[in-house]
Write a structure and sequence with these properties.
This protein is globular. By secondary structure, the protein is α+β, with helices and mostly antiparallel strands. It contains 21 helices and 24 strands. The N and C termini lie far apart (about 70 Å). The protein is about 40% helix and about 20% strand. The longest helix has 24 residues, at about 245-270. The protein folds into four domains: about 5-235 and about 425-430, no CATH class; about 270-410, GAD-like domain (Gyrase A, domain 2), CATH 3.30.1360; about 455-565, no CATH class; about 570-630.
Length: about 625
């Protein structure tokens, strides 16, 4: 796509958890628990009016879902502050220093006084119904590829509780993450292509890691991406956890908006107007009396109904693809689900299908009075849920006549997105009265400026000089979350610098692609594994198995992994016997091929002893054994 012609503008909000001694407003440690909760409590949240009597539309939307929230907690990671049974303590000074350090590194101007605000959030992720947040500096810039990108502000806020499940109108959250300090870096809308968005996010992440005060692992850094094109609408995509997904999210959102605008134009050319889209619901349960569709028959058996709505002139439009795996019907489905709690909708652009027969589709059209150019949407569930769902479909259909709706969406793992709520308004922010303002003194800034960390580009050159890494490996280390660990292990001589760099970057990424959650590995586990290598208790060939096992056993040690996997090192005598036995077993092949048999036998041997012997030792013993046979 020609992003310049489309007028693409992208702004990023990078959220990074900080590795401070305690949470933002209490003394609880910033860590997550994996065991069963020690206690739970239940809340129902509602929006409140602003000082001007306004209610934020995003907050009202969440409230109308009528959800019940169950919170899970334990004593180690949360207290009465997270439960909203006690006022917050003072703002974490260490977290403020990290934000001010980042500001100094990027030329952002610190505020004179930090004031904490309350931002209304009633989706259940905050027990209070709001998130505490503050601005620490304004302006600044980052340079990427010779181009300067502006920063709007740097802020500090409390992270939200993490959702565990959602079922039958009940959402479950764990409050261990609630209150962990979270730095927010917001860029100006200076980004004009998907690649630029990813590159800028990467550059900001490098500077954040350079502070040495950020938490590591999946979910500790998240990007929100704000995207608009000419004629479209500002859309906020929340929760992009994978950096490599940022460019794909931008690419797909542009496709989505362009195709939505084309749909608006198409509907206009068909003469479809707002008055044509009527919220006239028809009970069509009788049409599906003998249906083979399990979804519909099960809903009816539970006492539900099948309701339908006719959308005049929408045939062929609802099923039109907006971006991979997403259609206008997907958008309507999102709105129906989030408004009413139904499992989903069906529409005639995709029927017959899903065990709904051509005969039933014909009867459906007749029952609703739909012509060949009209689409019909149906939903099967409790009658009231069906009504709310189809009213949401009608509202989304009306939006299609206008263009792209301004809304908040969330990212899927493939880079596509789904609707979550309307865009918030200005009525969601108001002052926090329980936390005193924090002055930012010249003395504080001077102290931080005198101890600024090394900038990423300077560190890149030092990695190449001090550790002999090539440009590619040095950049991979800089871009990873393991830069400090790499320098520590290299300084302790735990392994060759290249092996350290390759393991922490390329190998770990490979294990992640294979499904191993290596981001959950602790530094002690990684250090301990390399220490076993240095002490001759394992071979580097064991690393994939050891790290994969440790990722699934977070409380275990590398020694536990070796024992469980049976990867104890073979003695040289044991290894020599295995090699000699293999050569004897394949003697005829060795006699025929001579030294050319080495490659085949080496593969066989490593398949048997991988992780229990050094490849160099296997190689040396095998060459000697082959040579002995050849000389005979």
């Amino acid at each position: 796509m020609d992003y310049g012609r489309l007028g693409l503008k992208v702004g990023l909000e990078v959220h990074q958890e900080l590795a401070t001694e305690h949470k933002l407003f209490c003394q609880c440690p910033p860590k997550l628990f994996r065991d069963e909760p020690e206690h739970t409590f239940e809340r129902r949240l509602r929006p409140s009016q602003s000082e001007l009597g306004e209610i934020d539309p995003a907050a009202l939307f969440e409230f109308l879902k009528g959800k019940t929230i169950v919170y899970e907690a334990n004593r180690e990671t949360s207290c009465l502050v997270e439960m909203d049974e006690e006022p917050p303590g003072p703002l974490n000074a260490e977290a403020v220093d990290v934000c001010l350090t980042f500001a100094l590194m990027t030329g952002s101007n610190s505020v004179d006084e930090i004031h904490v605000m309350r931002k209304i959030v009633v989706d259940g992720s905050n027990t209070t119904g709001f998130q505490r947040t503050c601005v620490t500096s304004l302006g600044g810039e980052v340079e990427v590829g010779g181009k300067v990108y502006g920063l709007q502000q740097v802020g500090l806020e409390e992270d939200a509780a993490r959702k565990i499940s959602e079922e039958d109108g009940v959402s479950r959250y764990r409050i261990d993450r609630l209150g962990i300090p979270l730095m927010e870096v917001a860029t100006a809308p200076d980004i004009h292509s998907p690649k630029e968005a990813e590159d800028v996010a990467l550059a900001i992440g490098r500077i954040l890691r350079a502070t040495g005060k950020v938490r590591k692992g999946l979910g500790t850094i998240r990007q929100d991406v704000n995207i608009s094109v000419v004629g479209g609408a500002l859309t906020e995509i929340k929760g992009v956890q994978e950096l490599g997904l940022v460019s794909k999210v931008v690419e797909y959102e542009v496709q989505r908006q362009v195709n939505l605008m084309e749909i608006t134009s198409e509907l206009g050319s068909r003469g479809v107007g707002d008055a044509d889209i009527k919220a006239k619901l028809t009970d069509v349960t009788g049409v599906f009396a003998d249906t083979r569709s399990k979804i519909i028959s099960n809903a009816v058996k539970r006492g539900g109904r099948v309701l339908a709505i006719k959308l005049k002139g929408f045939t062929g439009v609802i099923g039109r693809e907006l971006c991979p795996n997403r259609r206008l019907g997907s958008e309507m489905d999102d709105h129906a689900k989030y408004t009413s709690g139904v499992k989903g909708i069906f529409h005639t652009d995709e029927l017959p299908g899903y065990d709904i027969s051509p005969r039933e589709v014909k009867a459906l059209r007749k029952e609703t009075g739909a012509s060949a150019s009209d689409a019909v949407v149906i939903v099967a569930d409790e009658a009231e849920k069906c009504r709310r769902a189809l009213n949401a479909v009608v509202e989304r259909a009306r939006q299609s006549l206008v263009g792209v709706p301004a809304e908040t969406r969330s990212a899927n793992p493939d880079g596509t997105t789904y609707f979550t709520r309307p865009r918030p308004g200005a009525a969601r922010m108001y002052p926090e009265t329980d936390v005193v303002a924090i002055p930012v003194t010249p003395e504080r800034l001077k102290r931080l400026e005198e101890n600024l960390p090394e900038m990423p580009e300077a560190k890149l050159e030092r990695l190449k000089t001090d550790y002999g890494l090539n440009e590619k490996l040095a950049r991979q280390v800089i871009n990873s979350e393991y830069i400090e660990l790499f320098e520590r292990m290299a300084g302790e001589g735990l392994a060759d610098s290249t092996l350290l760099a390759v393991t922490l970057t390329e190998d770990f990424k490979g294990l992640e692609r294979d499904g191993a959650q290596v981001g959950d590995l602790s530094e002690d586990q990684i250090l301990g594994t390399f220490a076993l290598l240095k002490n001759g208790r394992t071979a580097k060939e064991s690393f994939p198995q050891v790290f994969t096992w440790l990722a699934s056993n977070p409380q275990a040690s590398p020694e536990d992994a070796l024992k469980s996997l049976g990867l104890g090192m073979l003695s040289m005598e044991e290894l020599k016997k295995l090699v000699d036995d293999k050569v004897a077993e394949r003697r005829e092949m060795v006699e025929q091929m001579g030294s050319r048999a080495f490659g085949l036998l080496m593969g066989m041997m490593m398949g048997e002893v991988r992780g229990r012997a050094r490849a160099d030792d296997v190689q040396a013993l095998l060459r000697k054994a082959i040579a002995a046979v050849v000389k005979e």
